[in-house]
Amino acid sequence: MISEEIKKKIRGIVGAENALDSDLDRFGYSYDASFVPLLPAKKPDLVVRPATTEEVSKVMAVAYEHAIPVTPRGAATGRTGGSIPLQGGISLSLERMMKIVELDVNNMMVWAEAGVRTIDLYNACAAKGLFYPPDPASWKFSTIGGNVAENAGGMRAVKYGVTSNYVMGLEVVLSDGTVLQTGGKAIKNVTGYNLTSLFTGSEGTLGIVTKVLLRVIPMPKKRGTLQLMFRTLDDGCTAVHRMLQSGLVPAAAEVMDRFCLEAVAKHRKTQHDPAIGACIVIEIDGEDDEALALQTKRMEAVAKECGVYEFRVAQSQQESDELWAIRRGISSAIASILPNRLGEDISVPRDAFPEVVRRIATIAEKHKLTIAVYGHAGDGNIHPSILCDLSKPGEEERVHRAVEDLFDVTLSVGGTLSGEHGIGITKRPYIAKALGESGVKTLGAVKQALDPKGILNPGKIW
Q1: Tens of pLDDT along the chain (462 residues)?
Q2: Which of 91, 138, 152, 241 has its CA 20 to 30 A from that of 348?
Q3: What's the CATH number for 338-425?
Q4: CATH class of 221-331
């Protein structure tokens, strides 16, 4: 518990209206978008909403002095429980830090506070003819600070990479309140350890990111959208793999299996052709219409070699938006089928993608569960969603066994437990298997060095 004296001190830093301790406020900051059961013990003792780095620093100094757990929080769109305050203490929300501090057109870089929404950063850059590619599915709500904490990816990762490929520098508040600046606008920088990379993807366990320096690139002049329908998921995955091998790199290549398509059709009250077992939605970009036409022609040829059932080219922006709406609507559509859904986030080498998809089907059959498969076919990031009813006897045990099998398959082909959602709470039991004893020991040493009292996002990863 946090004493009234400490609460008074924190209210003096951020203002009484930004240090909340009512039951309702505490409950509102006790969960995120993951599938972790809500428990009273996970409520924070105090919700703190600072507006500046200086305020974050002062709050952390108080927390450090009194060894109070601090759980950083963005928009809480995470899927692994990263912003759930497992040990109470302070839920430190960066939602008020929403300024785009500088848009440097000459150097093609932008400084943004942690609470800036991804879509707002994208739009601000686009207005200047610049392009910030990372586009997590939650980009309308997710924040830049959260994207950095989880090293978020998105649909365009196949061509443009993930958040870490654009982070040039950070402003970070350490556990004792010290403010650290990393990186900068210099393109080349090997002065000391790469602290920028160290904090990117650290899930708030090493420090609190308050500002981010991101590089951006020129906005593509033309974009196009393709929809490829296949009879089987294996054919669709093979087609994308062959495109990449032939030098065709789409900006995005999203795969959906039969179950996903049926769920979306039901959700949107449309009909699904039973002959279609998989859908690939592809985004291409280039300098002009001729470049798009050439890419389209070559992709169609590869698709035909793989037995494409239907090849469709969007003829307008509205048609393109409709095709992408299918992909963006999957999560909510499949979640409506059964009471519970456990969404995973495995990442495998590109050439293993078709094999892993086949083995997921085997796991589903083995455990008598429905596993919907969708994800980023172009970069090997698969989102298998296990649909279940945990009120049924034995269902929870079957789900856990299926997850174990899923991770075993992933690791056996050289993959990893998470491509863009992080470890958080839900994947903690498996991290030793993924990293090995020496890997876990080394990361633990880093954690101990930067957070000796263990107050930063305790209970996550470890």
Answers
A1: 899 999 999 999 999 999 999 999 999 999 998 877 666 668 999 999 999 999 999 999 999 999 999 999 999 999 889 999 999 999 999 999 999 999 999 999 999 999 999 999 999 999 999 999 999 988 899 999 999 999 999 899 999 999 999 999 999 999 999 999 999 999 999 999 999 999 999 999 999 999 999 999 999 999 999 999 999 998 999 999 899 999 999 999 999 999 999 999 988 888 899 999 999 999 999 999 999 999 999 999 999 999 999 999 999 999 999 998 888 888 889 988 889 888 889 999 988 988 998 999 999 999 999 999 999 988 889 999 999 998 999 999 999 999 999 999 999 999 999 888 899 998 998 999 999 999 999 999 999 999 999 999 999 998
A2: 138
A3: 3.30.70.2740
A4: alpha beta
> Who contacts 222 (Cβ-Cβ below 8 Å, separation ≥6)?
285, 286, 287, 288, 289, 291, 292
Q: Which two tokens stand for residue 144?
A: 């830049």
| Sequence-ordered alpha helix ranges (H) in 108-251 | 118-126, 144-150, 157-160, 195-199, 233-245
Residue with tokens 């859908």: 279
Helices 353-367 and 395-412, axial angle in degrees (round to 10) = 160
Task: Answer yes or no: pTM beyond 0.85.
Answer: yes
